[in-house]
Amino acid sequence: MAGVKHNPNPRSKSPILLILLSLFALFFLFFLFSLIPNTRTEYSTNPTRSPQTSFVASLEDFLAHRVPKTRSDDTVRTTDGDDVVGVRALDDSMYKVESERLVHGDPIGTTPIRVYVYEMPSKFTYDLLWLFRNTYRDTSNLTSNGSPVHRLIEQHSVDYWLWADLMAAESERVLKNVVRVDRQEEADLFYIPFFTTISFFLLEKQQCKALYREALKWVTDQPAWKRSGGRDHILPVHHPWSFKSVRKFMKNAIWLLPDMDSTGNWYKPGQVFLEKDLILPYVPNVELCDAKCLSESESKRSTLLFFRGRLKRNAGGKIRGKLVAGLSAAEDVVIEEGTAGEGGKAAAQNGMRKSIFCLSPAGDTPSSARLFDAIVSGCIPVIVSDELELPFEGILDYRKVCLYS
C-alpha cells in the first residue's frame, strides 16, 4: 500500500502462547466431535441429531440451522488515501482499548483471548461448505494415490471445527477461554475463515488458484492486516497442499498446520516455524474405542504390531518399504496395503482394535492421521519419523502413550 510504512513492532503483539493454550482444548474437541460412535451419518431434511457426532452431521446441522439469514461483509471498498486513514484509525483505536485494559487491571494474559472473525464473502466460506455437503455422497473423486478426497477433507477439517465454535452462541461454545468480539479494535487476534482444503480438493485447478488469489487480496487489503503485516492473523492451512500457490505472501500470519515439515518438501524455508505457528492434530479416521470397547477388546488383542496403509510413499515415507522388508516375516506382525476408503477404514479400525502396538511411520509428510487413529483405538503407537513435530508437544508428554523408533 502506497504511503503507509508497516510497523515491524506494532503496539499489539500476537499472544501466541495464549492461543496455544486455548487451542489445547481443541485437541480434545476433535475427538469429541468426530469420533463418538455413529460417525457415518446420512443426510436428513429434518436433522434432530446432535451436531457433536461427526464432521458430516455437524456440517449438516450447521448449514440447516446456524447460517445467518443476513450477513455483513468486511470487504474493503476504499481508495489508497482512505486506506491510510483506516489503518491509522484502527491503530489508534486498538492502542486506546489496550491502554484502558491495562489501566483497569485487565492485562493481556489474565482474560479470555479476544478473536475477531472476518466476515468474508460467501465464496470463501459458506459456498465451499455447501459444495462439500452437496458432493459428499455422490463423488468418486480420488487423489493420485487413491485416497477419497472427502475423507482427506474431514481429516484436515480443523478450519471448520474452529470456525463453527467461534460462530456459535456463547452458551454453546466449547472454547470458553476464547471470546469472539464484534469490533476489530477489541481483538487480540484475527481469524481468517477461508476453507483452503475444501477449495483445493473440490475446485478445478485454475478455479482454485483464482480463488486463492482473490482470498489473498481480500485479506491483505484489510486495515488490520496492513497494520501488523499479518502477525496477529490466524490462517488455517492444515493440508500441506492447500493455499500453496500464494501462501508465501502470508508467511507472517499464524498458520495452523499438521506438522512443521522441516525437510522443505511442503513448506519453504522461512515460511513456518514453531515460534510463530501452531501444530494441530488430525481428525482421526476411525471411531473412538471407549471404555466399554477397550474392556471388550483387551482379550482380543492377539496381534503384536499392526500397520495398514500405503506401502510406497515419497520423502520420509520411503521408510515404509524398509519396514515392510524387515517386518513382513515377523511373528504376530500384520503389514497390509490399504487405502482410506470405507472398506479400508473398517479394516484399519478392526486391525487396530486387535493389536497391542500400531506402526505409525512417516508418509509423504512427517505426520499422519494414523497416529491419532491408533490412540483412539487403544493401540500403542510406534512412531517412525525423524522430522515429526507433534501437536502441543511442549504440554503433552507423548512418551507416556507412544514409542519412538
What report would you give on this structure?
- The chain has helices at 16-35, 55-66, 80-103, 126-135, 149-155, 158-167, 196-202, 205-220, 223-228, 291-297, 319-327, 342-353, 370-376, and strands at residues 113-117, 178-180, 189-191, 233-236, 254-257, 278-279, 303-309, 333-337, 355-361, 380-384, 403-404.
- The protein folds into two domains: 16-279, no CATH class; 291-404, Rossmann fold.
- The N and C termini lie far apart (50 Å).
- The chain is elongated and about 70 Å long.
- The strands form two sheets. The protein has a six-stranded parallel β-sheet, covered by helices on one side.
- Helix 13 links the parallel strand 9 and strand 10 (380-384).
- Helix 2 crosses helix 4 and helix 7 (196-202) packs antiparallel against helix 8.
- The protein contains 13 helices and eleven strands.
- The protein has 405 residues and is α/β, with parallel strands linked by helices.
- It is a single-pass type II membrane protein.
- Belongs to the glycosyltransferase 47 family.
- It is found in: Golgi apparatus membrane.
- This is Exostosin GT47 domain-containing protein.
